[in-house]
Structure formats: structure tokens, C-alpha cells
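Lecture notes, part 5. Sequence design as translation. It can be helpful to think of inverse folding as translation between two languages: the language of shapes and the language of residues. The source text, in C-alpha cells, appears below.
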């Protein structure tokens, strides 16, 4: 069930649509602003596709956008009953339409198919990502290719498929999930750092091409967020440094994060939702760090 306030918003929309046709098209802007103030669900006419969203940050963003009223499309490369149940639970919790669409973000054709199968979108969150850690001279070529494809090229392919619809509707948000590693580097993460710097560059180009068409593009750069991608690195780091879990977290992982705390998926979701608000209409082509001060060092 949509919240009751959406009924008021629908009445406002109908009233101003009628007025716009009889009086002046500028009334449509006023209608849009009034709706935003009257409803708890400012994104309730929007559809969001979030790549790589059956766990971690992607799921946190999907939850935050759904809480703001957006219909959401979840995605990963698997197609399990749990994936579809996750979408059903979001629909149930937030009173929105939520679907799960399988598409492998390492494959350009599947990136395009995701956007087409969803029927386009108003909000595209390019979030899917993987990690592999090794010295450059020992870095397996297939891992390099996979990280570049999933973490960077999929953002290009999904954006290419989604932007024409956004331009046609005169409104859109592309949010690329980069990383503190899109702005700085660490040893042994060559593919990841290269891909994330590439995502930041792609963000700027997308913003410039979209400027003046109601479409913005920005990158969120999280520091460490405790999700499965990070959980997987903890045992390796414990072995490498001969430390217990808590010491690895404090002295190795969070050593670069001055707050000494992980960022959370809810915080990243909140920033993504802010970027979809009208307050962010003029924020484009930039990065927003959610890193406890990492990149201020
Ligand atoms: P995660 O492992 O929980 O999420 C990764 C998501 O991508 C999962 O849903 C996974 O199924 C999906 N995915 C992986 N390969 C895919 C493919 N081929 N096709 C489609 N989906 C695929 O990790 P996370 O931390 O939530 O990572 C999400 C994004 O945030 C990534 O781009 C990551 O680089 C970025 N990030 C994470 C952190 C962190 O500390 N967790 C920090 C900065 C940036």
C-alpha cells in the first residue's frame, strides 16, 4: 500500500495538470514542487535500477530509495528464489513495486538487456562490483578483465542504455558507486583502483553530456563499509598480518579511516537518495565521499 499522502499528491497533480492545459505550462513546475512538500514519498513517480543489489551497499541504496517511494529493480548475476523473495520483501515493507532481474554485469549485452527488461528507469545506480588483491606482476589476467568489466564498463553500458529514456522524459539521475579508491590508491589493488578512477572519469563525462537536460550524474566514494566484499578480505588480512579479526579491522582496514568506524549501507543509501532530491538538481559531475575522513588525509 502506498502511504495515504500519495492520494493528496495525486489530487494536486490532477489539479495542476488541468490548470497547466488551461492557463500556463509553468504551472507544472509549481505542481511538482508542491507535491514534493506534500508527500513523504518524494520519489513515488520514479523507477530506480540498482545493479548488484542483492546484498551490501546496493541493497542499502535500494532500501533507501524504496523508503522514499521509488519503485525498484534489484539485480545480480544469480537467479535464485532468495533473489526474488528479497524484491518481494522490499515491495511489502515499503509499498512500492520491486522486481528482481538477473543480468551479468560483466557482459555488455546483459547490461543493455537489464535496462530494456525493466522498461527504462529514472534513476540508475551503477553499483555492481568485485575485488581481487594481488601484486601487479602476479595479478591474474582474467581477474583484471572481470574487475574492469563489472566495476567500470558496466556503468558505461547501463548508462548508454538508460540515458536516452531519461533525456526523453527530461529528468534522470545516474549515480555511480566509485570508492575512496576512485580518488586515492592502495598497493595490490591495481584493477580495482584503475576501474574506480575510470568510474570517476566516466561520471564527469556523463554529467557534461547530460547537462541542461534535467539529468545529473555523480559518484559516491565510500571508504570501508562492512559488506560481503570486505568480509571476504578479513581472513586474508588476518593471515597476512598474523592478527586477530578485531586488530585487523582497527589497525589495518580502518587505519586509513580517521573516524575509526565503518561507514554503513544506510548512510550510502541516504546520500544516493539525497542526490535524487530537487536540492541536488545542480549537483552534477562530482564525487561525494562517505569515508570517515580517509580522503582528507
Ligand atoms: P557486495 O559484495 O555486498 O556487493 C556486490 C554486489 O555486486 C552483489 O550484489 C553482487 O551479487 C553483485 N555482483 C558481483 N558481480 C556481478 C555481476 N557480474 N553482475 C551483476 N552483479 C554482480 O559488496 P559491496 O561492498 O556492497 O559493493 C558494492 C559496490 O560498492 C561495489 O562497486 C564496491 O566496489 C563499492 N564499494 C564498496 C566499499 C566497501 O567498503 N564495502 C567501499 C567502496 C566502494
Amino acid at each position: 500500500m502506498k502511504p495515504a499522502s500519495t492520494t493528496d499528491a495525486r489530487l494536486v497533480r490532477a489539479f495542476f495538470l488541468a490548470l497547466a492545459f488551461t492557463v500556463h505550462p509553468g504551472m507544472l513546475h509549481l505542481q511538482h514542487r508542491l507535491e514534493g512538500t506534500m508527500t513523504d514519498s518524494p520519489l513515488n513517480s520514479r523507477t530506480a535500477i540498482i545493479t548488484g543489489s542483492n546484498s551490501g551497499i546496493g541493497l542499502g541504496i535500494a532500501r533507501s530509495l524504496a523508503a522514499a517511494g521509488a519503485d525498484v529493480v534489484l539485480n545480480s548475476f544469480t537467479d535464485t528464489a532468495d533473489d526474488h523473495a528479497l524484491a518481494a520483501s522490499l515491495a511489502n515493507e515499503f509499498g512500492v513495486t520491486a522486481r528482481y532481474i538477473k543480468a551479468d554485469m560483466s557482459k555488455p549485452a546483459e547490461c543493455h538487456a537489464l535496462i530494456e527488461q525493466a522498461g527504462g528507469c529514472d534513476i540508475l545506480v551503477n553499483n555492481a562490483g568485485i575485488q581481487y588483491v594481488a601484486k601487479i606482476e602476479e595479478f591474474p589476467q582474467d581477474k583484471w578483465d572481470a574487475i574492469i568489466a563489472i566495476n567500470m564498463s558496466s556503468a558505461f553500458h547501463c548508462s548508454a542504455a538508460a540515458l536516452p529514456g531519461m533525456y526523453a522524459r527530461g529528468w534522470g539521475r545516474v549515480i555511480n558507486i566509485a570508492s575512496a579508491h576512485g580518488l586515492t590508491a592502495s598497493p595490490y589493488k591495481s584493477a580495482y583502483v584503475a576501474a574506480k578512477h575510470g568510474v570517476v572519469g566516466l561520471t564527469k563525462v556523463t554529467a557534461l553530456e547530460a547537462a541542461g537536460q534535467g539529468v545529473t550524474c555523480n559518484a559516491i566514494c565510500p571508504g570501508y563499509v562492512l559488506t560481503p566484499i570486505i568480509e571476504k578480505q578479513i581472513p586474508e588480512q588476518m593471515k597476512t598480518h598474523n592478527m586477530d579479526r578485531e586488530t585487523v579491522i582497527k589497525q589495518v582496514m580502518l587505519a586509513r579511516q580517521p573516524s575509526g568506524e565503518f561507514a554503513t549501507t544506510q548512510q550510502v543509501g541516504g546520500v544516493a537518495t539525497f542526490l535524487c532530491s530537487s536540492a541536488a538538481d545542480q549537483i552534477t559531475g562530482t564525487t561525494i565521499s562517505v569515508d570517515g575522513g580517509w580522503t582528507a588525509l
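The translated text above is only one of many valid answers, since several sequences can fold into similar shapes. The first helix runs from residue 5 to 22.
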